[in-house]
Structure prediction request, 145 residues.
Amino acid sequence: KRSDHVVCGKTEKKKMRSCVEDVKDQGKSEDSAYAICTESVKKAYNTWILKNSNDFLIVARHPGVSKWLESQGIVGDSVEHVDNPEQVRNKNVVGVIPFYLAAEANEVYSIDIPDLPREMRGKDLTPEEMDKYGATLTRYKVTKL
Prediction:
């Protein structure tokens, strides 16, 4: 039951149970197994959603971001800046946009690079560098209240 907050359907729950058992068989504790598998299942699910969605808008100033997304199977129209709600309305947006625009989008995906050194921030990274520093996509649904 611990995994129910992470996964969305029967397939993901089966993957979670299977992953936890495999990790526990490797000598990890149950809590460690759940932590490892939660990230693994979330990433797999988000990747599936991305690859099976249409109407992407990629908001990026750096060419390396578009190349990395393409290597992940994610393609779409690309712009450097968004300032009009019509540009994002009902689309899946990958990139950084203001909340008022994110609320117009179907979903918004951020590219998180947790191990990026401070001196590399703001620089155009290659897809290989993005992978090296742990680039992942996180999916959000923003609602205006």
Notes: The beta strands are 56-59, 77-79, 92-95, 107-112, 136-140. The mean pLDDT is 83. The longest strand covers residues 107-112.
